[in-house]
Amino acid sequence: MKLLLTDSGVRNESMREALVDLLGKPIAEADALCIPTAGYGGPYGDPGGPWRFISGRSPSPMTGLGWRSVGVLELTALPGIDRERWVSWVREADALLVNGGDALYLCHWMRESGLADLFPSLRDTVYVGLSAGSMALTTRVGEFFVGWEPPDGGDSALGVVDFSLFPHLDHPDCPENTMAAAERWAAGIEGPAYAIDAQTAIKVTDGGGVEVVSEGSWRLFDPVG
Q1: 178-197 pLDDT per residue, tens
Q2: Tens digit of pLDDT for each residue in 1-27?
Q3: Could you identify which of 33, 61, 132, 139 might form a hypothetical disulfide with 93, taking C-beta atoms 3.0 to 4.6 angstroms apart as the criterion?
Q4: What is the DSSP string of the chain?
């Protein structure tokens, strides 16, 4: 997969250009599936968040970017659907738009549904994550972000990329997400980690290249750098 890991959606022209580059065509010619699942998880999950995400009424621009078509892929429903059917939906999509919410809840259902098993084969698919939707692909979320607790415990994510993410840096709605808090969080990650704000995304190409796309603030914590 090609990845655009955002804090809170595609919020500026630099990120939009990065998305178009990953797609290899205009957004208006691309078909997307949105995944609202993370919005139900954790202590603050409610039905309003997933609805706003799906309908494009969220303040985080994702489904309302002008796609040719948008469908919904709810991961908790997939175990009850014929696998060949939903796998074909995923393979036909140009992009997966993955909602925020609780990262470990999302990881759990990506594994349980079988979607995570498909990731290595989705070479041309663009994965666009929003907050928890981005964190789910990293190595660890860190204790700071543990809300919903997985059955086997821990804070391990899917490890599609070899770094971790601290989103919502210095966001007014998240006063605890300071740079000082990010430094303490990164010290417990024991691996490369990025703190990013709403105007920043991490672009990962299918060749493994990592690029920070930002019109805001960010920081890389690298224990071996």
Answers
A1: 999 999 999 999 899 999 99
A2: 999 999 999 999 999 999 999 999 999
A3: 33
A4: -EEEEESSS--SHHHHHHHHHHHTS-GGG-EEEEE-GGGG-STT--SHHHHHHHHT-SSS-STTS--SEEEE--GGGGGGS-HHHHHHHHHH-SEEEE--S-HHHHHHHHHHHSHHHHGGG-TTPEEEEETHHHHTTSSB--GGG--SPPTT-S-B---SSSSEEE-STT-TT-TT--HHHHHHHHHHH-S-EEEE-TTEEEEE-TT--EEEEESS-EEEE-TT-
